[in-house]
Amino acid sequence: MTNFGFTILKERHIDYDGNDKSIAEYICEREPSFRTCIECGCCSATCTTGNFTRFSLREMNILLKRGENDIVREQISKCMLCGKCTLVCPRGVNTRNVILLAREAFQKQLKNAV
Amino acid sequence: MLQEGKKRIWSDYQKEIADDHFFYVRSCIRQSFFPGSEQFFLHFMKNVLGKDVYENPSHTTCTGIGYHGDVVPLATIMTVVARHFALMKESGYKNIAISCVTSFGIYTEIIETWKHLPAELDKTREYLCKATGREFDVPENMAHTSDIIYKYRNEIADKAKYKLINLQTGEPLNVVEQIGCHYSKMFPKYGVGGAEFPNVLGGMITSWGGKVVDYPERRHCCGFGFRQYLVQANRGYSLSNTVKKFASMKPFKPDFVLTNCPGCNMFMDKWQYTMKTMEGTVYGDNGESIPVLTYEELAGLVLGYNPWDLGLQYHMVQSEPLLKKMGIEYDPGDKYKTKDGRQMPIPQNLINA
Fold first, then answer.
1. CA–CA distance from A109 to each of A22, A29, B117, B289 (Å)?
2. How far apart are CA B189 and CA B13, in angstroms?
3. Domain that holds residue B278
4. Measured at the alpha carbon of residue B147, what is the angle toward residues B143 and B152, in degrees to the nearest 5?
5. Looking at this predicted complex, what is its ipTM?
6. How far B233 CA sits from the closest chain A CA (Å)?
7. pLDDT score for B1
8. CB contact under 8 A, A8 and B240
9. Whether pTM exceeds 0.90
């Protein structure tokens, strides 16, 4: 085969059609304000957990909407539910409820209930 | 929403495009890789519409690729652009028509910089004066050449010999429109339809009888992206962008891609060869790749010009399947002949040939 000196990087692709968006849909159904998130990052800027770990609520929101759930599943338990993100959100997203619903959805997914 | 309200909001997304007397600036990529496009534009404007279009032989590259590749400093590119404006002033023109979307983005960025930071404008005037002894004025009207073809799209539709209709099925052709990122994503007010509803190519397609394909990655970058392309080892990033776009448009069975940016045209065309060679994938219908045309080439086809005079044979993906769908007559024997009938070398490994 021709050696081009570079390859197609599959890990750079976001497959919106193939990814599992059931978790994001579960959250949106129960907390519609999640739809209004503009991923500005105010939540991450104020997050105490984010100061000490790689947890970022902004990243979680983006990944959930993309249907890339593996990192979210791994990180979401780090949140301490202090609610500072909810106070600063310029779009009025009930971020604490988003996290609770995400955890709930992942638990239900384990039991094939989502 | 009331119709009046819709019209008022849409009017905010329009731009003023000059009627006549253009100072024309060419594109480095377009005049090298698909020279028929610029040639057609000049012919159409001067001989068909009877407009005054002037190009100055002293015009140079805008250095945009070097600027976005981090090798040309901002002060340098501002002075280069100022020199172009000086040539325009010396020639007595106030409306600039720009062939390249990268250059168009550079001009808009620099003019906006001068508006917000007048000290930079004074510095540029000083640099240009010291280097060349020239003086310049900022253009009164700035249009990309696709804006100008968009403005005259209905005149082209009136003169059309062929429509964007599949003669076998009678259905409109499915067309993917790919608008260069630097056309209106950076400064929306300079583009027709702004960044949200760019209609510069969609308007042409619908006027000429085709149907615009709305697919998930429609507004995604073609993959050119300057820095990720310039270093060979990084080209995987560029190619991956393109793969993502083509995978997203494939289910909609596009008949061809229409672009207004030299980078989009070159990469969406040539990466199809790379994807086919690397993975064996093709993204068109019937196991064929998707032809990628410029808006001038399409306008020329619609008006009934010879496809080989428009330079369609210089693309990697050959457009014969599209020509057959539209019912355009062409002579395969003339494909690689010069105007005086001499045979040119025939390229190997072309796609759809």
1. 9, 16, 55, 41
2. 7
3. 160-334
4. 125
5. 0.75
6. 6
7. 59
8. yes
9. no
Q: Could you tell me the fold of the domain covering A19-110?
A: Fumarate Reductase Iron-sulfur Protein; Chain B, domain 2 (1.10.1060)
Chain A positions touching B277 (Cβ under 8 A) are 1-2, 4
Query: Could you tell me if B201 and B326 lie in one domain?
Result: yes
Write the pLDDT tens digit of every residue in A80-92: 999 999 999 999 9
List chain B residues with CB under 8 Å of A1.
277-278
Any idea what the CATH number is for the domain that residue B127 is in? 1.20.1050.140
Count up the domains in chain B and report the number: 2
Is residue B3 within 8 A of residue B263, CB to CB? The reply is no
Based on the domain organization, do B132 and B179 belong to the same domain?
Answer: no
Burial class (CB in 10 A: 0-12, 13-18, 19+), B291: buried
User: Cβ–Cβ of A13/B278 closer than 8 Å?
Assistant: no
CA B342-B328-B151 angle, to 5 degrees, is 100
Q: Tell me, yes or no, whether B168 lies in a domain.
A: yes
In this complex, how many residue pairs, one in chain A and one in chain B, have their CB atoms less than 8 Å apart?
Answer: 46
Q: How far is CA B78 from the centre of its chain?
A: 23
pLDDT value, residue B342: 94
Mean pLDDT value across residues B173-196: 93
- Residues B121 and B210 occupy one common structural domain: no
Residue B307 near residue B319, CB atoms below 8 Å: yes
Do the chains contact at A6 and B232, CB–CB below 8 Å?
yes
Per the prediction, chain B carries an average pLDDT of 94
For chain A, the structural domain boundaries read 19-110
How big is chain B, counted in residues? 353
**Which chain A positions have a beta carbon within 8 Å of B236's beta carbon?**
6-9, 12
Distance from CA of B239 to the nearest CA of A (A): 6
A18 touches chain B (CB under 8 A): no
Closest CB from B241, B247, B278 relative to A4: B278
In this structure, of A105-109, B9-13, B118-122, B302-306, the range with the lowest mean pLDDT score is B9-13
